[in-house]
User: Which sequence fits this backbone?
């Protein structure tokens, strides 16, 4: 009787939690539906803020060494963009999914608006290949490092402003009211999409069947089970219609735990592995002795070829860092070394995580093929990669908090808490996906430890 009573109480608590989540989801859904017709105003406001924050500093002189973000607009804008917006954008995916993409992002909105006025061509087959997103992410990330996107306002304007212009151009040529840029080309979209699978928000079918709505990112709403390409524009949410999609709140990481029936994608897994390695390379080249050795080795090769005068020269600042007034000038040799170092880091980490994931697939004894097991276990590394990246990108924010009086010990404790949470979350997901099989968990845990150890070397 006592055992039955405990089971009854457990069921009651579970039902109460579901009811609470359902009520909160309805409140959130109702708010956004009420203001859905005003989303364009939000897009305009964010676009104007973006123009001011990335446009004005580009035409101002570089701040001197005594300047601070409280008395220099360039430093203030840099803090808002790279210290607040960028890290919080990734963190927001956990709690709100890709809400930024659908409600706030001016790039996607501008691209969609242009697509309504342009040629409305269907995107060609090559553009719809999943690997295009990886190429876009790699190219923009490396280019950002080479031009100093987080350090110099002109580089920020070039990267963020340039991608916005490309988004508008793509929209004008392709789409016919859809967001071809957001689905296939945006360098941020794929990363936010993969990580949104960890999030607490999902748009789910309200009944056994769903209605097909014209989704701007080409999602089939009638069969939708994945959050990866959903930008949360709320156009498929119409509670008065049968078969509509509805906002649902869920346990963090639940979609990954159910990945087998949530449209797993091999290119998403490979993107996660590659993006982790590339991000690590972007931080490591600035502190690693290996980068210095690589640069010297390349210099020796070009010297032997009699081409040192070519790689020993600098280029225009729209191609690379060239700010003698700030004491920083890149040579073509630097550009080559940074590119090779980051690509090597990307490939090495991706290969290592692939090996660990494949081993887990081979060890697992549930009759899955290696590919199916790879898809099942590949998403495990999302949390440790996400929270470590947030800490890395948030260094400007953390440094500012110390300047405002927060002790270094408190800041480091917060960073360590985030870092540990990411690692433990990945291990927990490994446990859930391995169904408690400890042998299967070993390679997955080793992969998590590898990612954590590499990030630890950068962050601490």
Assistant:
């Amino acid at each position: 009787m006592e055992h039955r009573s405990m089971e009854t109480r457990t069921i009651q608590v579970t039902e109460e939690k579901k009811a609470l989540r359902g009520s909160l989801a309805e409140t959130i859904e109702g708010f956004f539906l009420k203001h859905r017709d005003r989303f364009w105003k939000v897009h305009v406001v964010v676009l104007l803020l973006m123009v001011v924050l990335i446009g004005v500093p580009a035409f101002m002189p570089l701040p001197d060494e005594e300047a601070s973000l409280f008395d220099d607009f360039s430093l203030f804008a840099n803090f808002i963009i790279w210290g607040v917006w960028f890290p919080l954008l990734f963190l927001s995916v956990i709690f709100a999914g890709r809400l930024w993409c659908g409600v706030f992002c001016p790039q996607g909105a501008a691209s969609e608006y242009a697509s309504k006025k342009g040629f409305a061509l269907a995107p060609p087959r090559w553009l719809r290949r999943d690997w295009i997103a990886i190429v876009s992410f790699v190219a923009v990330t490396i280019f950002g490092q080479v031009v100093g996107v987080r350090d110099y306002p002109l580089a920020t304007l070039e990267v963020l402003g340039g991608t916005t212009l490309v988004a508008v151009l793509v929209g004008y040529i392709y789409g016919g009211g859809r967001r071809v840029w957001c689905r296939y080309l945006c360098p941020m979209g794929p990363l936010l999409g993969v990580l949104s699978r960890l999030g607490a928000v999902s748009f789910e079918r309200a009944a056994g069947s769903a209605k097909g709505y014209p989704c701007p990112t080409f999602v089939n709403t009638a069969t939708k089970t994945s959050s990866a390409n959903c930008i949360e524009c709320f156009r498929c949410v119409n509670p008065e219609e049968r078969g509509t999609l509805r906002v649902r709140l869920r346990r963090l990481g639940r979609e990954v735990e159910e990945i087998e029936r949530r449209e797993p994608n091999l290119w998403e897994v490979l993107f996660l592995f590659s993006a982790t390695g590339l991000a690590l390379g972007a931080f490591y080249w600035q502190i690693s002795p290996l980068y210095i050795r690589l640069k010297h080795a390349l210099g020796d090769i070009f010297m032997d070829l009699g081409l040192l005068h070519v790689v020993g020269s600098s280029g225009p600042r729209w191609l690379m860092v060239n700010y003698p007034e700030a004491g920083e000038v890149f040579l073509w040799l630097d550009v080559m070394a940074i590119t090779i170092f980051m690509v090597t880091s990307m490939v090495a980490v991706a290969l290592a995580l692939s090996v660990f994931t494949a081993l887990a697939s081979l060890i697992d004894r549930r009759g899955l093929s290696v590919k199916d097991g790879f898809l099942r276990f590949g998403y495990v590394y999302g949390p440790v990669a996400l929270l470590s990246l947030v800490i890395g990108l948030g260094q400007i924010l953390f440094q500012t908090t110390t300047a405002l009086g927060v002790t270094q010990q408190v800041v480091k404790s917060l960073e360590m808490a985030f870092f540990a949470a990411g690692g433990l979350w990945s291990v927990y997901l490994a446990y859930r996906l391995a169904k408690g099989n400890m042998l299967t968990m070993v390679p997955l845990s080793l992969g998590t430890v590898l990612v954590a150890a590499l990030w630890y070397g950068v962050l601490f």
